Amino acid sequence: MTTIFDVAKKAGVSKSTVSRVLTNKGYVNKKTRQKVEKAISEVGYIPNYLARNFRNSQTRTIGFIINGSIKLLGEFIEKFIKVAESFAYEVVIYSSDSDPVKEKQYLDLLKYKQIDGLFILTRANDWQVIEPYSKYGPIATWHRVESTKIYSAYVDHYYIYAAILQNLRKNGHKYVGFVLNSARSQNMLSANDAIKKQEAMGLKTWKYICATQENYGESSAQSFLKLSEKPKVVFIYADYVAGMFMKKLRELDETVANQTQVISLDNSIISELLDITSIDLDIDTQAYNEFVYIYNNLNAVSLPLKKIRLKLAVRKSFTQIDPECFPEYRIIK
Length: 333
Prior knowledge:
Rossmann fold, 44% helix, 14 helices, Peripla_BP/Lac1_sug-bd_dom, DNA-binding transcription factor activity, 434 Repressor (Amino-terminal Domain), single chain
């Protein structure tokens, strides 16, 4: 196997000079650098980055787990990677396909120091299974989780739903529809708490909970059309579901579609294209805070986290709402 000594001998320089060229640290004049680079090419030397990382006690790699069905969450992935790269870290994406065994194999990468930290976008295992791995390196997630071992830059959906419902009732709405995500989701439970509070104050509601991740927009629209009395406003938990809901509604009954107003979450490209009023959850800041938590733990520093700022993008699907209904949001813990 070709070594750094072979390169030094071929170039007629010291081992430390070759090392400075390889790491791009320290001064090497242009002529010497060219000699070393030529020697590297001629002897076929391949730097052992694994050994270098071992000496530095870091791989400078963050694992990123998804379950294989991310829809528009690619936007979050892109932002997370961009932040990581700005700190000279690489991100490797692993798809668990919702398989708990496969996900544990990726968690083991942290245990065996093949990655420095781990971000879980969508999980397959219970938190009780995941939490013990935090002793091997920092773990962050986009899930809402109350844990001292796993960081989450979540936005409290109770706050979102309470603010929107207060605004709707202020504008005279007494009957509101909801399409909510999986009952396993803490966000759904928080949203439902806010809804129940308004129900206790006289608000009439229709709720559709998406039990699976297939055809949720279409099935919720079909269920909606079966109602003898339909709410004029439907609050849907994600833009892509809202888009499917509106499309199916228009296919099946254009009159009802024209009478139904929609609000959703995410403020993604879909809400822009379909003119859906949507709540922007400040994904840029969420992605930044998630990475910085991992970075701070790996490097024993305390870079400050940023304040999340929610905003409402008012579009054609629903206009009778105050775009300033969200005051200053909290600093993530």
